[in-house]
Structure formats: C-alpha cells, structure tokens
Design brief:
CATH architecture: 4-Layer Sandwich
Strand order of the largest sheet: 1-2-3-13-5-15-4
Order of helices and strands: EEHEHEHEEHHEHHEEEEHEEEEEE
Number of strands: 17
Shape: globular
Helix content: 10-25%
Radius of gyration: 18 Å
CATH topology: Double-stranded beta-helix
Bound molecules: N-oxalylglycine, manganese (II) ion
Distance between the termini: 39 Å
Number of helices: 8
Structural class: alpha+beta
Largest sheet: 7 strands, mixed
Length: about 290
C-alpha cells in the first residue's frame, strides 16, 4: 500500500498518510517515509496516537536515537519531554533552570547542532495541546540556500560556524545554562552549508546556537548569520504547524530551522514528546568541512 503525500507549502513540507505509526512498518513504507523525509524536510502525520515506547520503535525505523541531555526531564532516556510541566505533572517554576531551557526553544534553532555530530532528524508527538498559541514554526534552510545568488553561495560554501548551547541559553538568561552542562558541551564547529548525500541538495544550517564563524570577525560573522536567517525565515520559506491531538511531525535538522511559539505557560498545560535521530558524524573538523 503506497502512502499519500500532500505538499504543505510550495517550498517544503508534506502531510503523509496511509500508515499507522504505532504498528510495525513494512520495508516499503519505511522506504517511502525515508524518501519523503529527504525530499520534503518536514513531514506531518495526523491521527497517530503513540505511547513513549511506540514512538521509540517508530523512530528507530529511521536510525539510531540520541540520548537526552543531562539535567532535562527524560535525561538518560531516548525521550525528551518538551513541556511546561515536570514529570509529575506540576508546572515548572517560572524562571527556574528547566523553565528557561524551554524558553530557548522559542528561538530559531536546529536540534543538537551544539553536539559534535548534530542530530539528523527529530520526531515530535503532541500528547497534550493548548487552546491558544503553542504552534511550531519551520523555516527551510534548503529553500533559502537555493534562493541565494551565485556570489553569495560562493562566499559561504565552505564556511564553518561555531555552535554552543551556552550561546543560545544566554540569549534567554545568563543563568540558563549550568556549569556542568557547559563543561559537558563545549563549543563545536559545524558546516554553514550542508549537502544532503541522498539528493545532493544544499541547505543553510543556522540557529541560535551559533556564536561565531571560523576566520571571521564576530560582528561580520553575526551580521552574515542575521542576513541568512532573515532569508530563511521569510514567509515563503516557512510553515507554521498548528497542532491537533495525536499529530506527529518529523523534521530534517540538516535542512530546516524550527521554533516554538509562546502560549500561556502559567495557566495551560502542553506536553510534546520528542525522539531525536542521531547524526552520523561531525560536519567540520579542524575548521574544514568534512
Ligand atoms: C523541539 C522543539 C518546539 C515546540 O521539540 O525540539 O524545539 O514547539 N519544540 O515544542
Ligand atoms: Mn528543537
């Protein structure tokens, strides 16, 4: 049985139906979802209720999973709880370390680019949604790259950016990152332009974790990052996902940026569960693209 694939925007994204994520996938369906992931960068699956265990099994069809960072709800497991609640269902204290970590998700980012081997993809399931706000937006670094002039492509192909979790967390609050996290996750180099080995298409890899570009003065580097981010996040290259119960969204961290949108965290409860497809290796070593 073939899948039904309906594009979400002209630039990227598709709704995919015709399979059950909580049941074992045939090799054919797994292959079709993988191919759609490479082509569309963001896949939306509606009406796919999942338990944590089912989400892990579904996700592992597409590669090994990352383990959740120390100091987060779900750390040491393959599940991250993106929520304003603690594991016991109580609300996180506003301004607390855990709450600030969540606030950083409102900045445009790509998951785990602060790790030497950045995440390939992320799979997020809606477990409890809010009445207002709490959408998730995506921006295509691929559509952005493909829209650039030949001169700009030449200027940026081969550049290496420095990503760190401390950089993005400090944008939210100077205390948002703990000393232990900073020691465990030192800054890492990443290619600014990544080529997808499956189809050869290139994408900008941007996001809030970037603090510098190798060999460039900081003000020039950040001006360039801001310019490229402006291109990637223009309306034509973005998609806003308004969550329905039991939605699952799978995205390619090598090709898109994303950000959460605000909601009333003091009065509503939102729970999203993420599994993260591990990357296969570093994208830059010794200041050069690999
Ligand atoms: C994530 C993330 C944003 C959101 O799951 O990686 O950034 O809207 N989520 O929950
Ligand atoms: Mn994220």
């Amino acid at each position: 049985m073939a899948l039904r694939i309906e594009p979400l925007t002209e630039a990227f994204g598709a709704t995919v139906s015709g399979f059950a994520a909580r049941e074992p996938l045939s090799a054919e369906i797994r292959g079709e979802i993988s191919a759609a992931f490479e082509d569309y960068s963001v896949l939306v699956f509606h009406d796919q209720p999942l338990s944590d265990e089912q989400q892990i099994i579904f996700s592992e069809n597409f590669g090994p999973l990352e383990e959740t960072l120390p100091g987060l709800v779900g750390s040491g497991s393959k599940i991250v709880r993106i929520s304003n609640m603690l594991a016991d269902g109580s609300l996180k204290e506003p301004g607390s370390h855990l709450a600030l970590f969540g606030t950083a998700n409102l900045l445009w980012h790509s998951d785990s680019t602060f790790k030497a081997a950045p995440a390939k993809g992320s799979i997020l399931s809606a477990r409890q949604i809010v009445k207002q706000g709490g959408d998730t937006e995506f921006a295509s670094g691929r559509a952005a790259y493909e829209s650039l002039s030949a001169d700009m492509k030449q200027r940026i192909d081969g550049l290496v950016a420095i990503h760190s979790i401390a950089t993005s967390r400090r944008k939210v609050d100077p205390n948002a990152v703990s000393a232990a996290q900073e020691t465990a996750l030192p800054p890492v180099p990443q290619a600014l332009v990544r080529r997808n080995p499956a189809n050869g298409r290139k994408a900008l890899v941007l996001g809030s974790h970037i603090g510098a570009i190798v060999g460039m003065a900081d003000d020039e580097a950040m001006a360039l990052i801001d310019e490229l981010t402006g291109i990637a996040t223009q309306k034509a290259f973005t998609y806003r996902h308004v969550w329905r119960p039991d939605d699952v969204v799978m995205w390619d961290n090598r090709a898109v940026l994303h950000r959460g949108r605000p909601y009333d965290e003091a009065n509503e409860r939102r729970l999203m569960v993420r599994t993260t497809l591990a990357g296969d290796g570093p994208t830059a070593v010794d200041g050069r693209i690999v």
